[in-house]
Structures are given as structure tokens and as C-alpha cells.
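Quick one:
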Amino acid sequence: MILKRNKAWVLQKGLVPIDAVCDMVAMGKDLQDILRRFSILNNNDIFECIEFYAQNTIVPDHDPESLISLVNTDPEEIIIEVTNINQTVYLKLVELGKRYHPEQQDFHVCMNLGLKVVCLHNVQKIESNASEMQDRLHKAVHQAIHRSVPEVYEDLDRTKEDLDYDDFIKREKNI
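Output:
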């Protein structure tokens, strides 16, 4: 359970600040590092912090390249690598990836899964001829892909197949 104490949001268990946990995640610490630092917490507590942070922060209205930058690392096929990412964007992608893949415990894997989910949401928007992406996170990812690997959106059927659209649809029903 999360409480507000002295102008800060904390986990009731141990009064650990949400920001302290999320800052460690954003600095690249893994789950075990955080659990060693905050030994009173468990895995669910850490992901509760990330979920709270992700749902209560807004992606900044910055230059899109400062939010997320991508590069295709393989000229023969599309293999996207994140080269720069804003802390809020990273944590929102981690939370989204965890929501769709609750069995996953690795932050970087969750972030990649969240990026995949956002890409597939964007594909759905493009297919439905929507004029706007859902929110700043979806816009930032859409712009990053458009800058770096526009071919992702050129063949939507292939993109859906590559990103396992059928699994995404099954998981979306459980969200």
C-alpha cells in the first residue's frame, strides 16, 4: 500500500520512498540490487512502486529525441535498440510490459515488452486511421520509430507478425 508522508509517496511497508526505488530502476539496478538495498521489500513491492510512478507521472513535453531514441542494429531485418530514454518513459514502458507479462521480473525485458505493446497499439491506431496517438508515451514511441526505422509502419502485417500480434491480443483481453 502506498501512502503520502511529509510530501512524499512511500510504501507503507518500511516507509520506503517511491522515488528512491524508481530512481534505482531508472539507473539500471536490477531487482536483486533493489531488494538488497531495501531488504524489507519484496518483488511485488518494487513493481507496485513502478506501477504507482508510471500511473502518476506525465511524459514530459520535451523534444521527442530526448524522450526516446531508437536505432535498427541489423540492416537485413529490423532489430530495434534503444539508444536514449527518459526516466519517465522508461518506467512507463516497464510498467506496461509488466502489466501485459506479469510473469516477467526483469526490468529491461519488461521495458522491451512495453515498447512492443506501444508499437502494436500504434499499429492499431494507424490501421483504424486515427489521427492522434493515445498519449505522450505513444506519440514519443511513434516519433522515435518514424525517425529511426520507418519501415516498421510500412508493412503493418509483417510488423504485427514480427511482434506477435496474436499473443498481444490474447494478453490484452486479460488486462
